[in-house]
Amino acid sequence: MFHEVVEDGTVSGGGETPDADEIRSTALLAAFEALVSESVAEAGRGRVADETGVDEASIEAAAGGDVAELSVTDGAAIVAVTADRDAETIVAELRDHLLLGMATAVLDVDTIAAGIDADLTGQEVQQALEGRAGMTLEQLAEIMAVIERRKR
Hints:
Layout: E1 6-7, E2 10-11, H1 25-43, H2 45-52, H3 56-63, H4 72-80, H5 87-105, H6 109-114, H7 122-130, H8 137-151
Helix pairs in contact: 1-4, 1-8, 4-5, 5-8
């Protein structure tokens, strides 16, 4: 789901169609915000709370489109309420997409860490990509933007 916002050199749902070399984290984050807030709007706050276990403050922020600090796992749980996949599948597909993108772009975690604004070391990027450490949707947008730019 989150990895599907980048298609054919465009950022779908983000209101932006950049050149392939200009995929920006802000456009990706905007697309993630739309995806998550639309899921909350479609399902309703109560249903999202009942089915996800995500705290009320995070659901309220997501409903308002403020998802930068939302964890990828919470974002996936919210999106899964209205999607045809469960949260674990969404996260697994996302990780696969990122790791395959790194291989295609011939990127290592240290290069990604150097290319993002988030204050993460290469080791922390690796832990986040592998699911051993948490990652916010803002960090995901930054990491994904680096990978996508290098793939093109």
